[in-house]
Amino acid sequence: MQKRRTSDQIALLVRQVQADVQAGLTVGQALRKVGVGQSTYYRWKSRLEDPVAAEAVRHFELEAENERLKLLVAELAMDRRMLQEALKKKP
């Protein structure tokens, strides 16, 4: 299973396919060139053309990143507290 692509990577791939189609390739040939399925391409393209959907995707990505960062901060705070307690116990 492949990793999920970021919104920047998706936009780049859609633009690349559109450029290949304008250069004379068929959509199928351009999609094979970048390694993306037809239904995936059209789903990505519709999301990029609809600014509300693109905004919702970006919002979801930011919320996920925010959660990851909150967990990281909590872990670092716990590590810091443990180190401080260990230093207090030393004679």
Order of helices and strands: HHHH
General form: elongated
Distance between the amino and carboxyl termini? 53 Å
Overall pLDDT metric: 89
How many discrete structural domains?
A: 2
Q: Nearest-angstrom radius of gyration?
A: 22 Å
* Number of strand elements: 0
- Label the structural class: mainly alpha
Query: Which residue ranges are poorly predicted, with pLDDT under 50 across at least 5 consecutive positions?
Result: none
Q: Number of DSSP helices?
A: 4
The main β sheet shows up as: none
Helix content: over 70%
Q: What portion of residues belong to β-strands?
A: under 5%
Brief rundown of the structure:
The chain is mainly α.
General description of the model:
The protein has 91 residues and is mainly α. The protein has 2 domains: 1-49; 51-91. The chain is 82% helix and 0% strand. It has 4 helices and no strands. The radius of gyration is 22 Å and the shape is elongated.
Properties at a glance:
91 residues; mainly alpha; 0% strand
Secondary-structure blueprint of this entry?
Blueprint: H1 7-22, H2 27-34, H3 38-49, H4 51-89
Helix pairs in contact: 1-2
